[in-house]
Amino acid sequence: MPKLKTRRAAAKRFKRSGSGKIMRRKAFRNHLLQKKGTDRKVRLGKKAVVTEADSLNVELMMPYS
Q1: Residue 13: which domain range?
Q2: Any bridge partners for residue 16, and if so which?
Q3: Residue 32, CB half-sphere, CA atoms under 13 Å: how many?
Q4: For a 10 Å CB count at each end of the chain, is N or C smaller?
Q5: Which pLDDT value is given to residue 14?
Q6: Rounded to 10 degrees, what is the CA torsion of 22, 64, 58, 21?
Q7: pLDDT for 22-62, tens place per residue?
């Protein structure tokens, strides 16, 4: 059986947590930040858990994570 390649785009965007969940970053924190409140920017800076519906696709893209 050949080795499977990791999709590098997915490897840069997703990480495993200590409990095994797949974590992602949140959207809307790239630009146009002067109109967003400080609390909102802090909240957007934290990691989020990938939903169960999408986690299977992410796991297939990163077979060895």
Answers
A1: 8-61
A2: 22
A3: 2
A4: N
A5: 98
A6: -20
A7: 999 999 999 999 999 999 999 999 999 999 999 999 999 99
At residue 60, what is the residue type? L
Do 43 and 28 form a contact (C-beta atoms < 8 A)?
Answer: no
pLDDT confidence bin for 64, thresholds 50/70/90: very high
Is 13 among the domain residues?
yes
CATH code, domain carrying 49: 4.10.410.60
Whole-angstrom distance, CA of residue 38 vs CA of residue 64: 37
**CA dist., res. 6 & res. 8, Å (int):** 6
Tokens 């146009």 found at:
32
Residue identified by tokens 């970053």 is 25
Residue with tokens 């095994």: 20
Alpha-carbon span 56 to 53, nearest angstrom = 7
